[in-house]
User: Which sequence fits this backbone?
């Protein structure tokens, strides 16, 4: 079995991978990393969850010079969520590299913060096309030293209409550079982008348009008018915390989330029309377990980092097989198992069986699911989330927050749930019964010598 040491990575990168518990590379990493380390342009086809961020990220980190305070590597991604995720992953891999700065620029983020960051530029910049071209137009971003560029989720970049922005960015980069492209699908448009942007590329592939064997597929054939009732019955029959329910339209997410709330489930809706702040809050609540179920459009199928997601439910089938596989690929990641339920009418069942990469392991009869009872389904959420008006820029750490909850609110460390530190905000999950007391106590105390506003996240 190949190890990361076999790939000739530096000791500082190997130490970071060891800290994360990573020992063996995924297939896409094993193929791509040696090619990228020797400087080749690479075009890779890889699904979400295949480890592609490390596949391009580790070679980027290996080749940048921490002593040169200029943008040396640019990672272009389609969404704000993916920008944040990629930056975080790269920072984890680079934890033992001193003087290395990694930034993420995206819509909805403060221009002033980004411009201040560029006074001492990051060596690696992750960003969305619109925001990056805005900085070029303002002459705040200098890409003359960028020797590496990554086009991540290239099919999504093109699908979202970023061709003009990509052209602008590629023209602003040095002609002598390494170009790396990853895409889940290889459509004609993606192949054209490869031809235009990469020089003599090496091609790598990891299970194109397929999902790992560790995912189990279950089908439930049910008429459209009975689907929401069947959804409740499925959720009642499984450990449902950390489940994503996929639908096709924004309004449907709200309707289904409300329907599940009536049955006692802690469900939240996620769609593209939510303001960025609300999307961020919803994802925080889902990641820390306060919201057990996420009802989402395909916005959540790509680029959102959801740990230990075990169950996907397709309440509505997407329009094609590739979208179905993208959704399903959110589970069964990093060696873990997952289950995918598809609630389909007769026509959709036939459609599902015609998709060659989808093999339903088991069909459940709706009659085998227990009847749903309104407001009697599940217990109320165990955790409530607290918001603290300080974060990474205030030098707050999870240890500081745990210490304050123990010292001021009288909580035990074992009671405290997941803590998420952002640049200017922090979130912590605490037992619902202790939440009000914790808010009152922390508002009257100091965390790391400073007072912060603490409130419940609704």
Assistant:
């Amino acid at each position: 079995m190949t190890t990361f040491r076999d790939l000739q990575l530096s000791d500082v990168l190997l130490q970071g991978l060891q800290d994360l518990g990573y020992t063996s590379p995924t297939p896409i990493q094993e193929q791509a990393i040696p090619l990228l380390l020797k400087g080749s342009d690479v075009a890779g086809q890889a699904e979400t969850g295949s480890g592609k961020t490390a596949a391009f990220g580790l070679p980027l980190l290996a080749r940048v010079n921490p002593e040169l305070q200029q943008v040396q590597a640019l990672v272009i991604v389609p969404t704000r969520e993916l920008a944040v995720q990629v930056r975080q992953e790269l920072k984890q891999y680079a934890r033992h590299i001193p003087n290395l700065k990694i930034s993420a620029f995206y819509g909805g983020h403060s221009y002033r913060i980004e411009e201040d960051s560029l006074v001492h530029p990051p060596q690696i910049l992750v960003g969305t096309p619109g925001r990056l071209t805005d900085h070029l137009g303002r002459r705040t971003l200098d890409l003359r030293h960028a020797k590496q560029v990554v086009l991540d989720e290239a099919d999504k970049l093109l699908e979202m209409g970023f061709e003009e922005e990509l052209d602008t960015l590629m023209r602003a980069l040095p002609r002598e550079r390494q170009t790396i492209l990853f895409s889940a699908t290889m459509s004609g448009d993606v192949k054209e982008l490869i031809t235009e942007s990469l020089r003599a590329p090496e091609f790598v592939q990891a299970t194109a348009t397929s999902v790992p064997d560790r995912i189990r597929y279950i089908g439930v054939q049910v008429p459209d008018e009975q689907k929401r009732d069947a959804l409740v019955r499925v959720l009642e029959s499984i450990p449902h915390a950390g489940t994503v329910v996929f639908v096709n339209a924004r309004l449907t997410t709200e309707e289904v989330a409300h329907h599940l709330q009536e049955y006692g489930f802690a469900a939240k809706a996620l769609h593209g029309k939510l303001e960025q702040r609300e999307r961020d809050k919803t994802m925080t609540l889902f990641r820390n377990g306060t919201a057990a179920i996420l009802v989402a459009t395909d916005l959540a199928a790509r680029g959102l980092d959801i740990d230990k997601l075990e169950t996907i439910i397709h309440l509505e089938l997407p329009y094609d097989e590739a979208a179905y596989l993208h959704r399903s690929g959110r589970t069964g990641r990093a060696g873990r198992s997952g289950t995918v339920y598809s609630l389909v009418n007769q026509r959709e069942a036939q459609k599902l069986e015609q998709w060659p990469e989808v093999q339903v392991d088991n069909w459940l009869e709706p009659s085998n699911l227990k009847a749903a009872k309104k407001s009697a389904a599940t217990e109320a959420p165990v955790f409530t989330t607290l918001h603290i008006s300080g974060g990474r820029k205030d030098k707050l750490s999870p240890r500081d927050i745990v210490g304050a909850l123990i010292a001021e609110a009288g909580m035990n460390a074992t009671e405290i749930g997941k803590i998420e530190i952002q640049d200017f905000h922090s979130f912590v999950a605490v037992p619902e019964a202790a939440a009000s007391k914790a808010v009152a106590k922390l508002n009257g105390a100091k965390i790391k010598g400073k007072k912060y506003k603490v409130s419940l996240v609704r």
In short: The mean pLDDT is 87. The chain has three domains: 5-206, 215-368, 383-456.
